[in-house]
Amino acid sequence: MTTRRAFLLTPLAIAACARTPKPPRSSGARRLAITMDDPVVDETPRLDSRARDAALLQALATRRIRAALFVCGKRVDSAEGAALLARWSSAGHILGNHSYSHRFFHSRSMTLADSVEELEKGEAIVRPYPGFRRRFRFPFLKEGNTIEKRDGARAALARRTSRTCSIALATTTA
Ligand SMILES: [Zn+2]
Protein backbone atom coordinates (compact mmCIF):
# COMPACT_ATOMS: atom_id res chain seq x y z
CA MET A 1 0.00 0.00 0.00
CA THR A 2 1.29 3.42 -0.89
CA THR A 3 1.79 5.84 1.93
CA ARG A 4 0.35 9.23 1.15
CA ARG A 5 0.95 12.45 2.91
CA ALA A 6 -1.76 14.93 3.65
CA PHE A 7 -1.48 18.13 1.68
CA LEU A 8 -3.19 21.48 1.74
CA LEU A 9 -6.19 20.41 -0.26
CA THR A 10 -7.20 17.42 1.77
CA PRO A 11 -10.95 17.41 1.52
CA LEU A 12 -11.58 14.18 3.32
CA ALA A 13 -9.65 12.53 6.04
CA ILE A 14 -10.05 9.82 8.54
CA ALA A 15 -8.98 11.54 11.67
CA ALA A 16 -7.84 10.81 15.13
CA CYS A 17 -8.08 13.33 17.93
CA ALA A 18 -5.71 13.30 20.85
CA ARG A 19 -7.38 12.03 23.99
CA THR A 20 -10.36 10.71 22.07
CA PRO A 21 -11.64 7.78 24.12
CA LYS A 22 -11.26 4.42 22.47
CA PRO A 23 -14.11 1.94 22.50
CA PRO A 24 -13.72 -1.01 24.85
CA ARG A 25 -11.69 -3.80 23.26
CA SER A 26 -14.22 -6.42 24.18
CA SER A 27 -16.99 -4.73 22.19
CA GLY A 28 -15.21 -5.23 18.89
CA ALA A 29 -16.60 -1.87 17.83
CA ARG A 30 -14.53 0.34 15.56
CA ARG A 31 -14.93 4.05 15.23
CA LEU A 32 -14.02 6.32 12.37
CA ALA A 33 -14.04 10.07 12.39
CA ILE A 34 -14.80 11.62 9.01
CA THR A 35 -13.36 15.08 8.69
CA MET A 36 -13.04 17.61 5.92
CA ASP A 37 -10.61 20.50 5.84
CA ASP A 38 -10.55 23.95 4.34
CA PRO A 39 -14.07 24.72 3.18
CA VAL A 40 -14.12 27.55 0.66
CA VAL A 41 -16.73 29.67 -1.00
CA ASP A 42 -14.77 30.06 -4.22
CA GLU A 43 -16.25 29.17 -7.54
CA THR A 44 -15.05 26.01 -9.26
CA PRO A 45 -15.56 24.92 -12.88
CA ARG A 46 -18.23 22.32 -12.19
CA LEU A 47 -20.27 23.69 -9.31
CA ASP A 48 -20.73 27.01 -7.61
CA SER A 49 -19.98 27.07 -3.93
CA ARG A 50 -23.58 26.66 -2.77
CA ALA A 51 -24.23 23.73 -5.09
CA ARG A 52 -20.98 22.08 -4.06
CA ASP A 53 -21.79 22.58 -0.41
CA ALA A 54 -25.32 21.25 -0.84
CA ALA A 55 -23.98 18.15 -2.59
CA LEU A 56 -21.53 17.47 0.23
CA LEU A 57 -24.15 17.92 2.92
CA GLN A 58 -26.61 15.74 1.03
CA ALA A 59 -24.05 12.97 0.61
CA LEU A 60 -23.33 12.99 4.33
CA ALA A 61 -27.02 13.13 5.25
CA THR A 62 -27.88 10.24 2.95
CA ARG A 63 -25.27 8.09 4.69
CA ARG A 64 -26.17 9.41 8.14
CA ILE A 65 -22.64 10.59 8.67
CA ARG A 66 -21.87 13.28 11.18
CA ALA A 67 -18.58 14.81 10.10
CA ALA A 68 -16.19 17.39 11.43
CA LEU A 69 -15.30 20.37 9.29
CA PHE A 70 -11.90 21.90 10.04
CA VAL A 71 -12.14 25.52 9.09
CA CYS A 72 -9.41 27.85 7.91
CA GLY A 73 -10.87 31.15 9.06
CA LYS A 74 -9.80 33.48 6.28
CA ARG A 75 -11.40 31.28 3.63
CA VAL A 76 -14.85 31.73 5.16
CA ASP A 77 -14.44 35.15 6.74
CA SER A 78 -17.33 36.61 4.75
CA ALA A 79 -21.12 36.62 4.75
CA GLU A 80 -21.13 33.72 2.32
CA GLY A 81 -18.64 31.84 4.48
CA ALA A 82 -20.73 32.46 7.58
CA ALA A 83 -23.74 31.02 5.77
CA LEU A 84 -21.72 27.91 4.91
CA LEU A 85 -20.71 27.42 8.54
CA ALA A 86 -24.29 27.94 9.68
CA ARG A 87 -25.49 25.25 7.26
CA TRP A 88 -22.94 22.71 8.48
CA SER A 89 -23.63 23.51 12.09
CA SER A 90 -27.39 23.28 11.72
CA ALA A 91 -27.00 19.97 9.88
CA GLY A 92 -25.37 18.59 13.03
CA HIS A 93 -21.75 18.57 11.96
CA ILE A 94 -18.84 19.61 14.14
CA LEU A 95 -16.90 22.75 13.36
CA GLY A 96 -13.24 22.65 14.34
CA ASN A 97 -10.44 25.17 14.07
CA HIS A 98 -7.80 24.86 11.37
CA SER A 99 -6.14 28.24 12.07
CA TYR A 100 -7.01 31.56 10.51
CA SER A 101 -4.55 31.78 7.62
CA HIS A 102 -3.30 28.23 7.10
CA ARG A 103 0.28 29.35 7.65
CA PHE A 104 3.12 26.87 7.72
CA PHE A 105 3.87 26.57 11.44
CA HIS A 106 7.32 25.20 10.63
CA SER A 107 8.30 28.43 8.93
CA ARG A 108 11.26 30.22 10.50
CA SER A 109 9.47 33.49 9.93
CA MET A 110 6.62 32.39 12.15
CA THR A 111 7.00 33.04 15.88
CA LEU A 112 5.21 31.36 18.77
CA ALA A 113 3.15 34.55 19.16
CA ASP A 114 2.14 34.20 15.51
CA SER A 115 1.10 30.59 16.12
CA VAL A 116 -1.03 31.53 19.11
CA GLU A 117 -2.61 34.37 17.15
CA GLU A 118 -3.48 31.92 14.39
CA LEU A 119 -5.14 29.60 16.91
CA GLU A 120 -7.13 32.40 18.49
CA LYS A 121 -8.24 34.13 15.29
CA GLY A 122 -9.25 30.83 13.75
CA GLU A 123 -11.28 29.86 16.78
CA ALA A 124 -13.08 33.20 16.74
CA ILE A 125 -14.48 32.36 13.31
CA VAL A 126 -16.06 29.05 14.34
CA ARG A 127 -16.85 29.69 18.01
CA PRO A 128 -20.24 31.41 17.43
CA TYR A 129 -21.84 28.28 15.97
CA PRO A 130 -23.55 25.54 18.02
CA GLY A 131 -21.51 22.97 16.11
CA PHE A 132 -18.24 24.42 17.39
CA ARG A 133 -16.09 22.04 19.40
CA ARG A 134 -12.64 22.72 20.75
CA ARG A 135 -10.76 20.72 18.17
CA PHE A 136 -7.73 21.97 16.30
CA ARG A 137 -5.90 20.63 13.29
CA PHE A 138 -2.54 22.19 12.52
CA PRO A 139 -2.19 23.33 8.90
CA PHE A 140 -0.07 20.77 7.04
CA LEU A 141 -0.11 18.89 10.39
CA LYS A 142 2.97 20.91 11.37
CA GLU A 143 3.10 22.16 14.94
CA GLY A 144 6.27 24.24 14.81
CA ASN A 145 9.90 23.91 13.76
CA THR A 146 11.31 24.32 17.27
CA ILE A 147 10.49 22.67 20.55
CA GLU A 148 9.61 26.08 21.99
CA LYS A 149 7.08 26.77 19.23
CA ARG A 150 5.65 23.26 19.26
CA ASP A 151 5.26 23.11 23.02
CA GLY A 152 4.04 26.70 23.16
CA ALA A 153 1.32 26.02 20.62
CA ARG A 154 0.34 22.83 22.42
CA ALA A 155 0.18 24.70 25.72
CA ALA A 156 -1.98 27.42 24.16
CA LEU A 157 -4.34 24.75 22.91
CA ALA A 158 -4.37 23.00 26.28
CA ARG A 159 -5.29 26.27 28.00
CA ARG A 160 -8.27 26.44 25.69
CA THR A 161 -8.98 22.75 26.37
CA SER A 162 -8.70 22.23 22.68
CA ARG A 163 -7.71 18.83 21.35
CA THR A 164 -5.43 18.42 18.38
CA CYS A 165 -6.65 16.23 15.57
CA SER A 166 -4.32 14.43 13.24
CA ILE A 167 -5.04 12.39 10.16
CA ALA A 168 -4.75 8.61 9.87
CA LEU A 169 -5.77 8.35 6.23
CA ALA A 170 -6.21 11.12 3.71
CA THR A 171 -7.82 11.27 0.31
CA THR A 172 -7.79 13.95 -2.35
CA THR A 173 -9.97 14.87 -5.27
CA ALA A 174 -7.09 15.61 -7.63
ZN1 LIG B 1 -5.68 22.50 5.48
Explain the overall architecture.
The longest helix is centred in the last third of the chain and has 15 residues, at 112-126. The chain has a six-stranded mixed beta barrel with strand order 1-2-3-4-5-6. It contains four helices and six strands. Residues 1-11 have low confidence and may be disordered. It has a single domain (12-16, 31-171), classed as Alpha-Beta Barrel (TIM Barrel). By secondary structure, it is α/β, with parallel strands linked by helices. It is globular, with a radius of gyration of 16 Å. The site of zinc ion (ZN) has 7 residues, from loops.
Q: Please give the CATH architecture.
A: Alpha-Beta Barrel
Mean of residue pLDDT?
Answer: 84
| Percentage of residues in strands | 15-25%
Which assembly state applies to the chains in this document? single chain
Helix content: 25-40%
N-C termini distance: 19 Å
What's the number of domains? 1
Largest sheet: 6 strands, mixed, barrel
In terms of topology, how is this protein built?
Elements: E1 12-17, E2 33-37, H1 49-62, E3 68-71, H2 79-90, E4 94-97, H3 112-126, E5 132-136, H4 147-159, E6 163-171
Parallel strand pairs: 2-3, 3-4, 4-5, 5-6
Antiparallel strand pairs: 1-2, 1-6
Notable traits:
174 residues; six-stranded mixed β-barrel; binds zinc ion; alpha/beta; 19% strand; TIM Barrel
